[in-house]
Amino acid sequence: MLLREIAFKCPSCGALCEDEVEDPGFDGLREKPEDAEGILRQKILCTTCGSDIDLEVRNNGAALLVTISGHHDSEVIVGNNVLDQSAAFEHWIDEMAIVPEVTFERTMDDLAILSEASIDASSRRVLNRMILTSYFAAIEQYLYGRLVRLVSNDTEAMLRLVSTDRELKAMKFTLAEFAQQPKLVEVEVMKRLQNLMWHNFEIVNQLYKAVLNKSIFPTAENRSYLNRMTEARHDCVHRNGYDKNDMRVNVTEDSLDDLRNALKAMYGCVDDAYREYQKEPGRQKATKMQIANALAKYSKAASTSTTSV
């Protein structure tokens, strides 16, 4: 849990209030970027007049925003911004201590067992839709965790991503901004990866090709199939299992097996590429200081009523 120091004037008596608030974090794996923001409400006691002050704390992925309920024009100062963002970056990296491939494999096995449950037909349709979306969640977490761990520990991987990804490559910063925030590049990369929808396999594929120089799709057939199943996922998540023509998406046990096998093939392809990358001559994990130094140098250069799936 990250705590942030704040300071503001009490709206009741005008006295200076200094305290800490909890950082609600930012969840980059949410369906929509706006849903990824962490929000919490916290009470702070004014030690001068005894008033309870209600605060709203919001993490938008770039900064911590704190407002006083009923007094939105009142200024709330949030600690040392440079130190705060650095701490957030370090905390984000620490969260990657979980091994992505282990989590993925366990989740896939658990879902396969769950799919064998003996239930009635109506409940089976609901369960199958839930399992389908959970299969996608498993691969999304793996793709996210694997790339984050890679670029956060390898200078060359970070530079490949920054110099190739269209959004990151287009960013421009002043020397003053770099002086104020030494970890500016890392923070922007973090925001980019956190805001990404990881079931958008075509965009994810571009990022992995930039870093590992290999597609996440083992075959053209796998690519076509998973992009089509992504549409089925969308229908299950947003339309309760119906497509845009109001036709039920028929998720069967066989189709779940096919999806599971296709996602495991993608996982195997990415994992093989990662391990081959790690075997390259001279490959070693860089320290965070080495990454910062390298980035600083780079920044200066600059058919029926049912649709089967």
Question: How would you briefly describe this protein structure?
Answer:
With 309 residues, the protein is of the alpha+beta class. It has eleven helices and eight strands. Strands 2-1-6 form a three-stranded antiparallel beta sheet, with no helix packed on it. It has a three-stranded antiparallel beta sheet with strand order 3-4-5, with no helix packed on it.
In words, what does this structure look like?
This protein has 309 residues and is an alpha+beta fold. Helix content is 54%, strand content 14%. It has eleven helices and eight strands. It has helices at 81-94, 100-114, 121-153, 155-164, 166-170, 175-180, 184-195, 201-212, 220-238, 253-278, 288-301, and strands spanning 3-9, 16-22, 38-45, 52-59, 64-68, 77-78, 248-250, 306-308. The strands form three sheets. The chain has a three-stranded antiparallel sheet with strand order 2-1-6, with no helix packed on it. Strands 3-4-5 form a three-stranded antiparallel sheet, with no helix packed on it. Strands 7-8 form a two-stranded parallel ribbon. Helix 2 packs antiparallel against helix 3 (121-153), helix 3 runs parallel beside helix 10 (253-278) and helix 4 (155-164) packs across helix 8 (201-212). The longest helix is centred in the middle third of the chain and has 33 residues, at 121-153. It is globular and about 65 Å long. It starts with a strand and ends with a strand. The model is unreliable at 80-86, 92-97 and 285-305 (pLDDT under 50).
